[in-house]
Request: fold
Amino acid sequence: MSTLVWLIGMAISFSVTMPVNACPPSDRAALLAFKAGLHEPNLGIFKSWTGTDCCNKWYGITCDSLTKRVADINLRGESEDPIFQKAHRTGYMTGSISPAICKLERLSSVIIADWKGISGIIPPCISSLPSLRILDLIGNQISGEIPFNIGKLRRLTVLNLADNKLTGRIPRSLADLSSLKHLDLRNNMISGTIPRNFGKLRMMSRCLLSGNRIYGPIPETISYIYRLSDLDLSLNRLTGPIPDSLGKMSVLGTLNLDGNLISGKLPATLINSRISILNLSRNAIEGNIPDVFDSRSYFMVMDLSYNKLKGSIPKSISSASFIGHLDLSHNHLCGAIPAAEWFEHLEATSFMYNDCLCGKPLKACS
Ligand SMILES: *[C@@H]1O[C@H](CO)[C@@H](O)[C@H](O)[C@H]1NC(C)=O
Reply:
């Protein structure tokens, strides 16, 4: 027993007194070049970036404990960190991301998020960082295109470039990101079509492309992504019909296609699918609402407003297990609104601006 205590004691004092290898001078130089490209006027987050050992208390920097190579850059402009609390403000930073960052060959995550003012392009050399798992540059002013060979990053699990000023197309190679789980390109100015090979992204569970200028059809191959749980293609310029196969996906729970130019009929498969949040508002969807609701139909949100739906509200809707927020307004529906237990909480606004709907909560049918 006492030997064991002694051994543990030795081990602890040994590890404390052992000289810790500092980060390699080349990594330090790359970080300093990265810092030189940025200007952070308010908080002084780079003040700690002094001394030779960049692995030791440099704000936002983490090194691999064995190799002492820089592994993570984690700089968030919106953070609970004491630096921010003391200053009573969120972060603001200008400048651009220096290509020197690509010399940090062992980088596993690059998070430079919500600084509002960082501009310039994504250094194309970033696609040559073999260990990169997370690239998160949300909430800046980054422009230019997504590097065309981004698909080389076979370990990348998170690609978040939302809320920037990116232009150009989604590169074809993006579909080669075989580890990608989370893709967020929302609110940029990305145009072009959704690459037809998108279905290759077999690990993807969230795909958020809302608020861009993406046009063309929704590729049917998206439904091959069997882990996909959240698909947001809203506020783009997509055309053509909704593929039937989207309603047969095993875990798709959120489907937002609102604010596009989608036409064709409402696929019956969407009505009794796993989808519980469905927003198809502001498109050009026509025909009847399929009369196929059953106990599998469970919707927190079903927004079909501002389309060209006609006919009556199907009777089967009363056998849905739940519809929390229903919006059928601004269509061409007609006839009596069916009665259902969960209809009790619905207001007239859910049904207004149709051709001739009647009954509770609207005026009684005559
Ligand atoms: C559905 O999308 C429309 C148009 O983008 C939006 O105005 C509406 O708030 C969304 N509905 C719900 C319930 O979130």
Remarks:
- Confidence is low (pLDDT under 50) at residues 10-19.
- DSSP finds three helices and 21 strands in the chain.
